[in-house]
Write a structure and sequence with these properties.
The protein is of the alpha/beta class. Helix content is 47%, strand content 15%. The chain has a six-stranded parallel sheet with strand order 3-2-1-4-5-6, with helices on both faces. Strand 7 and strand 8 form a beta hairpin. Helix 2 packs antiparallel against helix 4, helix 8 packs parallel to helix 9 and helix 10 crosses helix 14. The radius of gyration is 37 Å and the shape is elongated.
Amino acid sequence: MKFLPAQLAFFLQSGTARTNVRALLKLVAILVAMVVAYSVAFHFLMAAEGQDHSWVTGLYWTLTVMSTLGFGDITFASDAGRVFSMLVMVSGVLFLLVLLPFTFIQFFYAPYMEAQRQRRAPRELPADTSGHVILTRYDALAVSLIERLVFYSRPYVVLEPELTRALELHELGVPVMVGDTDDQDSYRRLRVDQASLVVASVDDFVNTNVAFIARELAPDVPIVALARDHDSVDVLQMAGATYVLELAEMLGRSLARRALGGATRANVIGEFDQLLIAEAPVFGTPLAGRSIVECGLREETGLTVVGVWERGRFTPAGPDTRMETSSVLVLAGTEAQLTLFDELVVIYNTFDDPVLILGGGRVGRAAAAHLEERGLPYRIVERDPAMIREDARYVVGSAADLAVLHRAGIEAAPTVIVTTNDDATNIYLTIYCRRLRPNVQ
């Protein structure tokens, strides 16, 4: 109860709430006036019948009749008194049992509960908050990042402009704060100057505003911004972003690194002085179905198998780690050792036909660019003529059309990369291509 005055004060801050309360008080005033008028009329009617009652009795009778309790201990003997009793009873039903409860719930109780609900969504972080990561959007990317933050025990908070969505996240146990993404005051309340990282992941325009605001308030805090358009990279950097990530570009390159083609199997993804880190798909090699110790890669090439990617999950490699057709090895070694690995596995399959890319969007074009860097041929199937470039490597049409796939070279393609912007379409095309080519990557 000691918090009730504060809660009421918060509730009455709203102009709508104050208007509703005034309407409710007017209704209560009308009800009080009716009770007084009925009590006075009760005395005159009772006096006309020769009965004498106190004013308290008149009030008591009025309230019992209006509330329909009707104890029956005080009654009228005349028709005029009975008509008056019916009038009091009907008006009591309308006001006490219908109008007043409805008005109270609609104008006071429901808004009050909504105000209480809104208070559950934090609007400011505690002053001592520090070392936290600020996320500007809760989506699939944020969920993946949150898993890593939780793993490393790093505090985080999601900035959410929609109150309803913020309450949903709050009830799910996600640390969230209500505030506009492009409002400077929101980042002050987020204690951005005490944060360890800001992740701007909305769209390029909003991300630019976020980077500019966060950099102005926190000159030393790292800011990671996502760029959907390559032309936005420079703008985001000038706005203050420490790192700018082009996810479509990164995803396209990742897919292309794992595509079979030419005489190269190990594709370098990192370099530390003389030590190279590379990815190599197991598909099309005798490594599939064998464990690390059984294949003897270290003895044959000197390479170290650091880990294995299996359907989007990375697992550190051990001697008994088994490699499947869908596995991608992460190798560490020198350039000479990687060349030896290529020579060892390329004898089983050589691929000279173009890699088939289904979808000419950002990811598909990024994959094509990386394949071109590797010197591998490719063809892109795209149904939208507006996205087609004047290039013989583009095939216009739907990837679900068998004739289009035949024109693109589905019969001989070593790898099919599916990059449409729809999960259902990707699943459909994957199954379709697998039926057409059971052994294709």
